[in-house]
Design brief:
The complex is a heterodimer of chains A (237) and B (284). Chain A has 237 residues and is of the alpha/beta class. Helices cover 32% and strands 26% of the residues of chain A. Chain B has 13 helices and no strands. In chain B, helix 1 packs antiparallel against helix 12 (225-249) and helix 11 runs parallel beside helix 13. Classes of the chains: A alpha/beta (237), B mainly alpha (284). Chain A binds chain B through residues 51-53, 68-70, 72, 76-84, 87-88, 91, 94-95, 97, 99-100, 102, 127-133, 136, 143, 147, 153, 160, and chain B through 34, 36, 157-158, 160-162, 165, 167-169, 171-172, 174-178, 219, 222-225, 227-228, 277-281, 283-284.
Chain lengths: 237, 284
């Protein structure tokens, strides 16, 4: 039972367009795993399939831990919605609260602690429209943290954020890993692959490779997924 | 003396009835506005018309509750068609709402004309569902509206967190194991009920104003969901009470349209004086 989840023969299509074909991977517990591939490779769909958000044509997905937390892309949200930062973070507690109950002081304390973790303590009462892109990404992360899940799934958390936010997120991810959690991240920047991640899934509709970054992150595999790379992206193995 | 009391009694009854209708519609309307489904209320209320006409042809009853029951069923069918077709085709919801609204309403007008031409009912019976006629509310009607309003508010408070969550971030709700589609269905049926109880007060053509305008106005003043909820209810009931009072004291003023005019005044004042808010369309 050292696996966080396993996927067998997963195939997904939108209408007549094939998005994922016959993907089989296993991800162990306690790793920070990157899902990597060119645009249209099916990375987001792969995440959504694990979450049960898309209909699959075939395949089985076994998640060995019940609690999964999902951090969506920032652009899917109406940022003009009348809520404060604390309200959004508290949403992470709703599932635990169950029916009819409103968040208590304990939930508020947990939410404030999560905000401190992502370095947004002073932002609790701010309206969400008054946040920068990086801050928005961090409140999503805080909402995920209060869920106390076993698996964290994040869709492009590093896109369009500043260096500070990127550093905060990486720090949080490493803290989570230290607690034995599994983190799956859709990622684009190949330069930071070896620094941030220890596991990777390389996709381009079909599975190119999956395994530890040390073994899988090779020039050959990357070229298989992306085609030939420009010289400055040459990978030091 | 007796006639003085009697006329005041009518006014008070009309005020209570429209107050309940306005408060309920404004409360559930907050979620319609937050979910960017402002046209849904319009589609539901227009869709109710053929249901009312068919119910009359089937039962030959003139009891408004029997007719509104038919209206409610048709409203639900209209709303579910919208929910279902948006899920199964690439059509955007606004296009679909426009289609459902006019198809159902057109069918309703055809049926109404047939009923009148055949002499099955006089003009007033079905005509009052176009613009409403609050002055005909009986005390039993008001009791029934109050019971419905009570249930609607119970559902809102029971599902508050869930309605809030699916309005803000349905994907997150889904990923967290909430049955988003079922919650949408519950919210939609509740909206249908809130609309139906207002149909013989305000009418199918103007009912959506009571659903959307209070929340739209309140949104300009406050920036939390619960404040938005209560302020919308205040605006909605204020417009209803003021509108029914004015139409009671000024001769020849119809209640429903007067209420909508009052609501429009609140919206206009809001746009002139509400604090300027930042918008979240671009990132800071």
């Amino acid at each position: 039972m050292n696996q966080a989840f396993s996927v067998k023969n997963l195939t997904v299509a939108y209408g007549d367009r094939l998005v994922l074909l016959d993907i089989s991977v296993e991800v162990p517990r306690g790793v920070i795993c990157a899902v990597v591939g060119p645009n249209g490779a099916g990375k987001t769909t792969f995440m959504k399939a694990i979450l049960g958000l898309v209909d699959t044509i075939s395949g089985t997905i076994v998640v060995h831990h019940e609690a999964i937390s999902y951090v969506p892309q920032r652009r899917t949200i109406d940022w003009d919605f009348p809520v404060t930062v604390l309200d959004v973070v508290l949403m992470g507690r709703y599932r635990t609260l169950g029916w009819c109950r409103r968040p208590s002081e304990v939930d508020r304390q947990l939410a404030l602690k999560a905000l401190a973790h992502v370095k947004l303590t002073d932002y609790a009462d701010r309206h969400i429209s008054q946040l920068s892109g990086g801050e928005r990404q961090r409140i999503f992360l805080a909402r995920s943290l209060v869920q106390d899940a076993d698996i964290y799934i994040m869709d492009e958390p590093f896109v369009g954020v500043d260096v500070f936010t990127e550093r905060v997120i990486v720090e949080v991810l490493k803290d989570l890993r230290a607690q034995g959690k599994t983190i799956i991240v859709v990622h684009h920047d190949l330069q930071t692959m070896q620094e941030y991640f220890d596991w990777m899934i390389l996709l381009n509709i079909k599975l190119i490779a999956s395994g530890s970054v040390r073994e899988i992150f090779t020039q050959k595999n990357i070229e298989k997924a992306y085609g030939a790379l420009p010289a400055f992206l040459t990978i030091k193995e | 003396m007796i006639s003085y009391f009697a006329s005041h009694y009518t006014i008070i009854m009309v005020m209570i009835g429209t107050f309940l209708v306005g408060a309920t519609a404004a409360g559930i309307g907050v979620f319609a506005v937050l979910r960017r489904q402002s046209l849904l209320g319009d589609a539901i209320s227009h869709a109710a018309l053929p249901g009312i006409a068919l119910m009359f042809m089937y039962s030959m009853s003139t009891n408004p509750f029997v007719l509104l029951f038919g209206g409610g069923i048709a409203g639900c069918i209209g709303a579910f068609l919208v929910l279902l077709i948006t899920r199964t085709t690439t059509l955007k919801q606004d296009a679909l709402l426009g289609i459902i609204l006019s198809v159902f309403f057109g069918f309703g007008v055809v049926l109404k004309t047939v009923i009148q031409k055949k002499g099955l009912a006089n003009q007033a019976l079905l005509g009052k569902f176009f613009f409403g006629n609050a002055s005909t509310l009986s005390s039993f009607d008001i009791f029934a509206i109050a019971v419905m309003a009570f249930f609607i508010f119970c559902i809102i408070f029971l599902f508050w967190k869930e309605f809030f969550l699916i309005s803000f971030d349905p994907e997150f709700a889904h990923a967290n194991g909430y049955r988003v589609f079922i919650l949408e269905v519950v919210l939609t049926i509740t909206t249908v009920f809130a609309i139906v109880i207002g149909l013989h007060t305000v009418g199918v053509l103007l009912m959506s104003a009571l659903l959307i305008a209070p929340a739209a106005a309140a949104r300009q003043w406050v920036s939390s969901v619960s404040a938005l909820f209560w302020l919308a209810i205040f605006f909605g009931s204020l417009a209803c009470v003021a509108g029914s009072l004015i139409s009671s004291y000024v001769e020849h003023l119809p209640t429903g349209p007067t209420i909508v005019v009052c609501m429009s005044l609140i919206v206009i004042v809001t746009f002139m004086f509400a604090p300027v808010r930042t918008t979240g369309r671009g990132e800071l």
